[in-house]
Amino acid sequence: MVVQRVLVLCAANRCRSPLFAVMLREQLQSANVEVTVESAGFQTSRRPAEPGSVREAAARGLDLSTHLSRRVEATDLRRADLVLTMELAQLREAVSLDARCWPRTFTLRDLVRRAGSATAAADGDRVAGVHAGRRAGDLLRAGPVDDVPDPVGGPPAAFAAMASEFDRSAPVVAELLTG
C-alpha cells in the first residue's frame, strides 16, 4: 500500500501535532511526494496553535499562524494510511475509536525507532513492515518512553526541544513513506 494520507494526533491539536504535521508536509513536498498530512486532537476544536509552536514553525520558515485545532473522529482514522500519535495514551484512545487503525497507528517515537530496521511487507507496504512483530498487548505497557513531552505551560526551551526532536524525526518518517 502506498501511503496517501497521514494523520498526526496529540491531545489538543494546538502544539505537537500541528507542528509535526507542517514539518512532515514540508519534508514530503521537498521530495516531490504527494501525501496529505493532517493533524487533529482529542479535545476542543477551533483553538489557535500555541504561540511556542507558531514561533518554532516560523523559525523553520513554516506557518502555523492560521492553524485552528480540530477534534479527531473515527472517520479520520479510517481514511488515514498512517496515524502518528505523540503519546501512547493517545494511541490507545485512537484504537478505542476505531480498532481497525491499530496496524497503522504508532507513537512518533516508536515509528522512528522501528523505521530503521523495517523491511517492506510482501506487497511492498512499508507501514505493514514496521508493524510486523507488534502485539495488541503493547498498548498496555507502562512508561513514557514513547511519549513526546508536551511543552504547553513550559519555557520556550521546552518548545525548542520538541521542535528539535521533530527536526530529527520528520526526515525519518518521510524516508519511510518515500522508500
Q: Which helices and strands occur, and which strands form pairs?
A:
Elements: E1 5-10, H1 16-30, E2 36-41, H2 51-59, H3 74-79, E3 82-85, H4 88-97, E4 105-107, H5 108-115, H6 126-131, H7 156-178
Parallel strand pairs: 1-2, 1-3, 3-4
Helix pairs in contact: 1-2, 1-7, 2-7, 5-7
Descriptive notes:
With 179 residues, this protein is α/β, with parallel strands linked by helices. The protein has one domain: Response regulator (Rossmann fold, 3-Layer(aba) Sandwich). 43% of the residues lie in helices and 11% in strands. A 4-stranded parallel beta sheet has the order 2-1-3-4, sandwiched between helices. Helix 1 (16-30) links the parallel strand 1 and strand 2. Helix 1 runs parallel beside helix 2 (51-59), helix 1 crosses helix 7 and helix 5 packs across helix 7. The longest helix is centred in the C-terminal third of the chain and has 23 residues, at 156-178. It is globular and about 40 Å long.
Features:
single chain, 179 residues, alpha/beta, Rossmann fold, 4-stranded parallel β-sheet, 7 helices, 11% strand
Order of helices and strands: EHEHHEHEHHH
H/I helix tally: 7
Number of domains: 1
CATH topology: Rossmann fold
CATH class: Alpha Beta
At the fourth level of CATH, the homologous superfamily is: Response regulator
- Main sheet: strand order: 2-1-3-4
What's the quick description here?
With 179 residues, the chain is of the alpha/beta class. Helices cover 43% and strands 11% of the residues. Helix 1 (16-30) packs parallel to helix 2 (51-59) and helix 5 crosses helix 7.
